[in-house]
Batch of 3 targets.
Target 1
Amino acid sequence: MQLRPWVILVSGTSGLVGSALVPALTVGGHRVIRLVRSQPKPGEEAIRWDPLVGMIDAAGLERAEAVVHLAGENIAGGRWTAAKKAKIRHSRVKGTWLLCEAIARLAQPPKVVLCASAIGYYGDRGEELLTEESAPGSGFLAEVCREWEKATEPAVQRGVRVVQLRFGMVLSPAGGALAKMLLPFRMGIGGVLGSGRQYMSWITLNDVVGVIQHALTTDTLKGPVNVVTPHPVTNREFTKTLGRVLGRPTLFPIPAFAARVVFGEMADELLLASTRVQPTRLVATGYRFRSPELEEALRHFFQSS
């Protein structure tokens, strides 16, 4: 158990997870240093890097006792053109390799590196129950996730405890997938996507922050960790539950072909793929979920907003 504040370097601080994590760490007494692409302002607690050109302020890394690496191109931010896919891959793989190589060269590396990954590692697996021991899947996201996790190898070889956080769908009304769903569902035009049988493995943003804090302080936790609740649901179950919580009908299904017309390849890998994941390592190391059940989580969001 951590007994004193740490100096923690965090990348991706403007994203959904990072923007919630930094205040939580600060309130907990930790000193947070941001890893940023712009020139830090005088007095700002920040270190500059530019993954596109392979530049990082390695000297600044010496201060970090722990690293939480969340940076990466938004995979749901538009159709997957060849250029978009290249940015997704490069931002994750090259950025992670750059950071971990710099860490490996430090005289005194950080105690732990937490690196974002995703359950896209498993690909489209139907009803198969997946754990951290399951084989990787196929497809663009699975390939990216394999390369992304492999890019942490320099830090692993240096003897740093490295945790690859395989995030599921992070739920928050403030951003991400749920925020995009709210308008159509509140208008009463939400509905099942495709067959509705595809599994959605999810977790609340509040629990993501809790998992990161747990991973920072749990010395036995290393390697891939599924960051999802123990209760994945099908798209049909998710749709009906969200409609019930919002008090709206869910009578307007979106056929698979329509999703493909609008979103292209992204539809098959993000919206229609079935990934039924269990958080085996989190449970084994004693993490207690704050919102393990979907309806409870959604009601908390909307009753407190």
Target 2
Amino acid sequence: MPIFITMKTPIFKNLLLLSLFVGIIAACSKKEDFTSQDDQQIEEIQIGLTFRKASLRNQPVAFSVFDDEGNEISENVSFFVDGNLLEANSFVSPSEGTFEVYAEYDLNGSVYTTDIETFSVVIPKRKVIMEDYTGTWCGYCPSLDAAINEVALLTDDISVVAIHNNDDLALAIEPTIREEFGVFGFPSGRINRTTPWGSALNFPISAVTDLAGNVVPIAISITTQVSNGTLFTKINVASEEEIQDKKLVVYLLEDGIVRDQTNYFNNDETSPYFGLGNPIPNFELDHVLRASISDAFGDPMTNTAALTDFEMNYSYNLPSDFVVNNLSIVVMVVEQDNTAVNTQHVKVNESVFYQ
């Protein structure tokens, strides 16, 4: 996934660096597998020096330079990484690290030099997907919310999805999801989709933190943009091993939704919800599942060679009552049995690269 680097020289001084999302919008949402080179959905206008912001160990990082009309400059271009001239337009590192890159090129008889920028080579780390099966009617459900908040204080290597039941935030697909994963009581937690998290009101924090940040083969990057009420999402997946028989799950979440929450801990002095009332008025609900942009259990991923980017693009028409500034995307790569291999999340209108 390219980033754009501003130029030191006047010819590029006033250029805007941007990515435009284009495509044919389906009635609700649409997906495109770009491993098949379908040219719908997302088109990036490249200007200046471009390259993938983050790559895996031993994954080639290709560099290109584009003029102000988006035409690639392919002659008389030299690329430098950490001050060393590359023999070609690509770079490979067997170990993780942060590197500096710039280019020199001849344009109409004048020599130009780009600014020095950085890119990363990473070893993929696991982000644990934590799913909270809940409802505003459920008086014991704040206990799971409290456990998730405690985990979040200890690690950033988590993604959270709150799946509501039997309230105005519940989706039509909720019973199907719940039945697939054997959720029969509330509150219920799941780790990496298929592993029950705790029981009754006991949710052991170490069950999550022992997994979070562990090395895994797969990394996920996400770029999102909202244009004219449509959310465009570009997802890239790369792996140190062949991607085979995997699925891609893409969920849209919303934070900051306010509802009255039934609270059976109002008289429990050990609870963070002690004394807040029953129900708790205007309780802020985060990570609320608002839509499944993919199939609820994932869209098939094309088998992809190791260290090769798999790309998928989606578009989704946002309902008018969704607050764009509070929206985020959670992406999961899952096995055929729905166990999550890795996950990633990002706020809408932002991007996150391989980590």
Target 3
Amino acid sequence: MPESRYLIKNGFVLDNKRAEFIKEDILIINEMIAEVGVNLKDEAAQVIDATNNLIMPGLVNTHIHLWQAGLRGIAGNWTLMDYFNYMLDSLGDQYTPEDMYMANLLGALEQIDAGVTCVLDWCNNLNTQEHAYWSLKGLEEAGIRGVFGYGPPGIDAAKWWFNSSELHPPKAKEFFENYFSSKDGLLRMALALRGPDSTQDDVLFKDIKLARDLDVLATMHIGIRSKWGVKKIYDAGLLSEHINFVHANNLAEEEYKLIVDHGASISVTPEVEMQMGMGFPATGKLIRAGGYPVIGTDIASNIEGNLFTQLRFAIQMQRGIDNQLILNNDKMVEKIELSYKNSLDWVTSLGAKALGLGNEVGKLIKGMKADLIIIDTSAINLWPVHNPYESILFYVGRHNIDTVMINGKLVKQNGKLLYANLPNLKEQIMESSARILHDAKILDLKEHYIFKHK
């Protein structure tokens, strides 16, 4: 392949070490950041003018179910039990492998549009190996960096999610050997395990050991229905940095400390947790234990894919919890306990670390992969920019993301996705999702209007 060279000029680059922005240039050769500095020159490079714009690492979404991207707008009143009953007992059963491909492709493109360059796709609708293969193909075609979480089927929730005696699908090992034996490339594999809230202890331990044998990340839901799951994993000698916990709202206090001490991570998905009855997000509990959360958007069937929004939810919800404790004592809030400082790390460098990619992405420094976004500061919702960090954290939406680069390749430029077949994909996903909703027979379609856009 011919060498590609880009020189991004005169942007304000996020420096993770100091949590501030410095006016610099970035030279990118092929997939790597070759240099970051002032007044860089390269006659062979294509110049990208980023004057007065903000440049930061691409966002890392550590928990999302991309396969639900075609079913947006159906789960606005769902509890967690509704989710199990409808999504995992009825809707998931209607998906063909082609449906999985289209949904994952659409969901990944939507993430790119919002500035996400890396996702952990928690794929819990793998009813056959064909479903797994075509889900992976959707990620590949989108061009996103990702960790493909090989999960259970999306059918028979009682069998798979409630004190289950079923081991993780054994086909996962075969799938890993067929498609992930090399650790190079944009996509890696994880095991999307059900965790201690959903399985019997012997199943939990065997599932984690399978992930360890394959040398892949184990990611699992925890702390929604019960405490002490982390303690079980610790007592079995299986707690490590190779585990990513999801939600973890209601753990015992000592369990957060165990997670921090062993280098494991917690993906907080605040909006869906507040809606579905999982409890307040674990942000503050984890911080008090000496750690920090990483962030996910969770179900694409009800939560918009803007990771900046979820980061705001996490910060402001915890501030509300902290402030209420003061107000309950008839005092005025005189200090914000949770500072926003370094919180962009939650969706960049710390997110990458949680997925085992901390040495590749999440920072804009020489030798890292060129995954980055350029934020246009001229839009009315950002202008004027007094503090770049605050402007990004509290104001940015997907329409402010001018440029997205993944592995040194432009995938969004001048505010537009560069995926050429998007109109056809949108039509196909409309037909696919309308059929799935109709065949599942769980919704009153008179209240769920299906629009076709030509």
